[in-house]
Write a structure and sequence with these properties.
Blueprint (H helix, E strand, L loop, with lengths): L1 H4 L5 H23 L5 H24 L7 H26 L11 H18 L6 H46 L4 H19 L6 H22 L4 H4 L1 H17 L4 H5 L7
Keywords: Membrane, Transmembrane, Transmembrane helix
Protein name: RsiW-degrading membrane proteinase PrsW (M82 family)
Organism: Streptosporangium lutulentum
Length: 269
């Protein structure tokens, strides 16, 4: 308990504070001297602060960053996240005509399916079929997706609320996306790649279907609680959804240990 209370000593907290500070400093530059050229950087650091901090915390606990080459993880972040955003953006527009109506409850099914496509493509090539590698790939893809989505929300809000308002949006999303987009995709990949590691190939099983449905429902509940016309007090239930989401992810990955991953090679078929 004492160690948990000293969270400020952990690397994840230092990363989070540093990136928030950079975003705030860049926003201050815009406000003081009017230099709009630094706006994308301010948005990026603000959007990435929460996800980056969670990635550091997960790696320190599990060592998953050692399970896949760094270049592959960067590629999954840049291109996997981009592909997921293309798929999610297209089908969101196609299947969710009213962003403030009941159709918003479809978003979890669409976006969780979109985010699992890039890691699935890698798995179908027969590479990195380990649970640790799957979680690393899933988190990388979800991080790229979440950062770019958060930046898009900031761009939308800047016209109505100014740079300070956009920065506030990024700060709030930085607190929530690590316990939403990242853990939902990480949960699916933990279960799916765990099954595929045991089987030696990609198969669809009931546990995989079940975990996808769970993640999609949690995702849709989260968005519905924040968007639908419901009592303000009920919106606070999104905190419970985030807590349950992270708890499920933690349970799915608690068996991963840094020393075990360092001593193992990614499975190949």
């Amino acid at each position: 308990m004492r160690e948990h209370l000293r969270f400020y000593r952990h690397r994840w907290f230092k990363v989070w504070i540093a990136m928030i500070a950079l975003s705030a400093a860049l926003i201050a530059v815009i406000q003081v001297v009017g230099n709009q050229a630094v706006l994308p950087a301010a948005f990026f650091y603000g959007a990435a602060a929460g996800p980056a901090a969670l990635l550091v915390a997960i790696h320190d606990r599990t060592g998953i960053g050692n399970s896949v080459p760094g270049t592959t993880l960067i590629g999954m972040f840049l291109f996997g996240g981009g592909v997921a955003l293309i798929l999610g953006g297209y089908f969101d527009s196609l299947l969710i005509p009213d962003k403030h109506g009941p159709t918003i409850l479809r978003v979890g099914w669409i976006e969780e399916a979109a985010k699992i496509v890039p890691p699935l493509v890698v798995a179908l090539n027969g590479r990195y079929l380990t649970k640790a590698a799957g979680v690393a790939l899933g988190l990388s893809c979800a991080t790229g997706f979440a950062i770019m989505e958060s930046m898009s929300y900031a761009w939308k809000s800047i016209h109505a609320d100014g740079v300070i308002g956009a920065g506030t949006v990024l700060f709030l999303r930085g607190l929530t996306t690590p316990f939403s987009h990242l853990v939902w995709t990480g949960l699916i990949c933990a279960v799916a790649f765990g099954v595929w590691e045991a089987r030696g190939r990609v198969v669809i099983t009931l546990p995989i279907v079940g975990v996808f449905v769970t993640a999609a429902v949690l995702h849709s509940l989260n968005d519905g609680l924040l968007v639908l016309d419901i009592p303000s007090l009920a919106r606070l239930l999104f905190i419970a959804v985030a807590a349950v989401s992270y708890w499920l992810f933690y349970r799915a990955t608690r068996g991963l240990k840094p020393e075990e991953i360092l001593d193992s090679e990614p499975s190949r078929v």
